Amino acid sequence: MRKMRTQRAIAVLASVLLIGGVAACGNSDTGGGGSKDDGKITMGFSQVGAESGWRTANTTSIKESAAAAGIELKFDDAQQKQENQIKAIRNYIQQKVDVIAFSPVVESGWDTVLKEAKDAGIPVILTDRSVDSADKTLYKTFLGSDFVKEGKLAGEWLVEQKKGATGPVNIVELQGNTGAAPANDRKKGFGEAIAVNPNLKIIASQPGDFTRAGGKQVMEQFLKANPKIDVLFAHNDDMGLGALEAITAAGKVPGKDITIITVDAVKDGMQALADGKFNFIAECSPLLGPQLMDLAKKVKAGETVPPRIETEETTFTQEQAKEALPNRKY
Ligand code: GYE
Q1: Per the count of CB atoms within 10 A, which of 23, 30, 57, 185 is most buried?
Q2: Which residues line the pocket of ligand 1, CB cutoff 6 A?
């Protein structure tokens, strides 16, 4: 009797294992091109670089979330170069990872490598920044912020502040790296918002590459070339922080003589805002890791995911920054 029961138990166990095995095979067919079928997900991630506080927080979020989700992460820092990102993606294809995720440094020029990933059966998730490829089947989804909206919120705040202005309000703009989605889109959103008041004029606009050093250097040039600057719109906190040094060195008071608007709301930016050196920040959240890992699991399991997932964001005035600062995680 006991022997029969044991035999039946073994048979049940064997069939469970068999079905499990078949199911796992099915998964790999519908999902990624991963070679192993151990149920583990391997993600190849190509990061832009380490240019800003935002990027550092984003990298931490991705690494921590991968570990928490039990996803094996292969991580590459492209040092702000598209060629390095393409090389990393090709490596991931060769290694037959299950999912490729990346944050494209610029918008254009990805079709060939994305096609290579597609042909290899490896799903791609875009995170943080998007690409301008016409063929939307080259990637599964894009998880990130609405950069046009961020620029618009920044511009709308300025319009409200300067609605009583009777003469020209001279604005200088520090752009992110040339060709990057957040640089293109924030410029667009801001420009559209301020167009309602002809007094608001962008008198100079140049890339500062999203770095403090870039922000400082370009702001020095702006200050030398333009005796009257009323407003600085910097596409991220770090460039704004770099610009603070140039403004102070020129004998002007940041936040008073020059109104400063930035994007991101990382800790150092929020501190400058609370201290009255910045005047307004449109938030851009770098904490994309948990959602990214979730998407990777779904994509690998062959589930359909929405083509666009937008990050939720807010804006901060000086008073709001003082309140929010103690609980800010990054
Ligand atoms: O605003 C900036 C970073 O792509 C949203 O890149 C990101 C931007 C962010 O360097 O600080």
Answers
A1: 185
A2: 51-52, 54-55, 128-129, 182, 210, 236, 238, 263-264, 284
Alpha helices in the chain (DSSP H): 2-30, 53-69, 82-94, 111-119, 147-161, 181-194, 212-225, 237-249, 267-274, 289-300, 318-324
Q: CA 129 to CA 239: how far, in whole Å?
A: 19
Q: Which pTM value belongs to this model?
A: 0.89
CA distances (Å), origin 123, targets 12, 66, 77, 290, 296 = 35, 17, 20, 18, 9
* Ligand 1 atom at minimal distance to the Cα of residue 144: 5
Tell me the CA–centroid distance for residue 34 and ligand 1, in Å: 31
Q: Which of 283, 284, 244, 238 is nearest to 260 (CA)?
A: 244
Cα 284 to ligand 1 centroid, rounded to whole Å: 8
CA-nearest of 157, 170, 239 to 202 is 170
Task: Compute how many other C-beta atoms are within 10 angstroms of the C-beta atom of residue 215.
Answer: 29
Residues 292/123, Cβ–Cβ less than 8 Å = no
Cα–Cα distances in angstroms (integers) from residue 103 to residues 65, 96, 113, 181, in the given order:
16, 19, 14, 10
C-beta atoms surrounding 224 within 10 Å: 10
Rounded to whole angstroms, how far apart are CA atoms 176 and 61? 22
